[in-house]
Amino acid sequence: MRYSELFISTLKEDPAEAELISHKLMVRSGMIRKLATGIYSYLPVGLKVIKKVENIIREEMNAGGAQEVLLPVLSPAQLWQESGRWALYGEELMRLKDRHQRDFCLGPTHEEVITDLVRQQVRSYRQLPVNLYQIQTKFRDEIRPRFGLMRGREFIMKDGYSFDRDEKGVEVTYQKMYQAYSRIFQRCGLRFKAVEADTGTIGGNFSHEFMVLASSGEEEVVSCRQCSYAVNADKAECRPPQTEPPAFPYAREEAHTPGLKSVPDVAVFLNKPVTVILKTLIIQADNEIILVLLRGDHELHPEKLRKHLNCHEIALADEETVRRVTKAPVGFASPVGIDIHKVIADLTVETMGNFVCGANVEDYHLTDVNWGRDFHIDQFVDIRRVSTQDTCPLCGSGLEINRGIEVGHIFKLGTKYSKMLNATYLDESGQSQIIVMGCYGIGVGRTVAAAIEQNHDQNGIIWPQAIAPYQVLLLPLDVQDKNVLTLVENLYTDLKAAGVEVLLDDREERPGAKFKDADLLGIPLRVNIGARDLAKNQVEIKIRRSGEIFKLVPDDVKNKLMELLGNLS
RNA sequence: CGGGGCGUGGCGCAGCCUGGUAGCGCACCUGCUUUGGGAGCAGGGAGUCGGAGGUUCAAAUCCUCUCGCCCCGACCA
């Protein structure tokens, strides 16, 4: 491709709307352009990268035994009513009506459509297993679309669905998909972790999220430094503390703590470690007010609590409610003598004794408080956020916490949709059986964005070779010079003939401008061809990632490029 | 949804408070000079100031409504 003919325009400045590096760089390098919030056009360079990722996905999915299909974007409401999701999916479902006022939606995911297809086609166990996938645009009316391709309302997704006879079958398929996913992200040149997304479900580890590690990630990943333990922070566990509560409870006392509302303030004032302070939270769980207790240095993980309570929403009670139930301003709440009946404490609280907590009186705390003696606790539950101070629940080693971008998710669906939509087959004995499903997604645009988050420098993108829009950039510095021009054209022809994707920057720009654009675009290999060097029979190859430079005679350039392409990642 | 902020040539912004009919940088076009890390000079094209309504002799500027866009939304315990 000749740059002069490429539909591209690069920007010197960051777009105002972009926050993330990947978003800024994708806009600046002319890969994407916004049409509306969370809705982007893919320009040629951007689309090229998208296609690269898609093809890697295709190859690995096919290798893993899946077959590609293409399902409609538009789907009739009936199907969604049948599965119950027309009512359940909520505002995120993009709904519309046709001219006859019939209800439709734009597919946010395709369980219904694929299950409908399979239930019509599959009659016998002989036809199973089936594993189908598609790469297609999805629509989700997100509450808060942001970060460019990272969280859009319209986005390209690979979604796959498997259909097996039974649990054993789906386990095999699941493992194949796990392997396929690992290879896909490896080939894309990403540093990632496959983390358990749902521990403790029937049958073991049957949901994994593939997380690309990046500080900008929206998810939190907890993993062990030693063993294979890796989970989403939502589900992270840790070893319960080994310490025992003190043998001798002291007599409870009151302490005057004027204006001290936070745990650290109280700890400093009373000259005690934060670990002997009890954190008392008044929580609104749907319509119920409950009391939640944590050690002073620990934080509540709302999602864990929400799951435990099996309710919809968890929030800190508002100030008014706190005043009403504690009869004190925010900051002095206490489980001692409070009129709340449901009291849940984190596991760690079990090991605490002679601790400090609020007094339900403004400017007062209580010291040497002990649970059991001074107040009642209903349940001890793991509800706190795991920290790097904690240890691995499996092996006891140290834990690390990283931020991650969820680029893929695989899970065993079971019979949820096949039951609802009546997708069955006849087994050997002529018995009707429900098909067991699995479901496998990859955010294609998000994977591209994640790749940039992991591969860039101050000057721009540094593409992993496998997903780079071009492998080689030919950069003639003097497009007027006959010798330069001849050499560059010959190289261009040769490389193309050798199957190398090459971009020739034939613009009559000054070298500086071309260099800047080259770095921004992030093509792995660049060939600088200038009249000055050429007079000395010399040409320069520069590696984008390392900055390494090779000076060679023109005749060696092609071979050196081919050699380098074989070694790059 | 709640809170905050912003809409002015393709992009980034100033002008608004204190009304007088629009400006800067980048990009773009022409010419000359320049040419190894975003060149210089000269000339030029391009904006219903998001939209609607109102106040006024006069509105980018003041008022009302509306649409769009961006950011934040447990950490007080």
Structure description:
The model is unreliable at 199-204 (pLDDT under 50). The protein has 15 helices and 31 strands. The strands form eight sheets. Strands 3, 7, 8, 9, 10, 11, 12, 21 and 24 form a nine-stranded mixed β-sheet that branches. Strands 16-14-15-17-20 form a five-stranded mixed β-sheet. The protein is α+β, with helices and mostly antiparallel strands and 569 residues long. The structure holds one RNA strand of 77 nucleotides.
Distance between the termini: 22 Å
Average residue pLDDT = 89
Mind summarizing the main beta sheet?
Answer: 9 strands, mixed
Report the helical percentage. 25-40%
* Overall morphology: globular
Concise summary:
With 569 residues, this protein is α+β, with helices and mostly antiparallel strands.
Core attributes:
RNA-binding, alpha+beta, globular, 9-stranded mixed beta sheet, 569 residues, 15 helices, single chain, 5-stranded mixed beta sheet
Topology, please?
Blueprint: H1 21-28, E1 32-36, E2 39-42, H2 44-63, E3 67-68, E4 74-76, H3 77-83, H4 85-88, E5 94-97, E6 103-106, H5 111-121, E7 130-139, E8 154-164, H6 167-187, E9 192-196, E10 207-213, E11 219-224, E12 230-232, E13 253-256, H7 263-270, E14 278-285, E15 288-295, H8 302-309, E16 314-316, H9 319-326, E17 343-346, E18 355-358, E19 364-369, E20 379-381, E21 399-414, H10 416-420, E22 424-426, E23 432-434, E24 436-443, H11 444-454, E25 456-457, E26 460-461, E27 472-476, H12 482-497, E28 502-504, H13 511-521, E29 525-529, H14 531-535, E30 539-543, E31 549-552, H15 554-567
Parallel strand pairs: 3-7, 15-17, 17-20, 27-28, 27-29
Antiparallel strand pairs: 1-2, 4-6, 5-6, 7-8, 8-24, 9-10, 10-21, 11-12, 11-21, 13-19, 14-15, 14-16, 18-19, 21-24, 22-23, 25-26, 29-30, 30-31
The chain binds one RNA strand of 77 nucleotides through strand 14, strand 16 and helix 13.
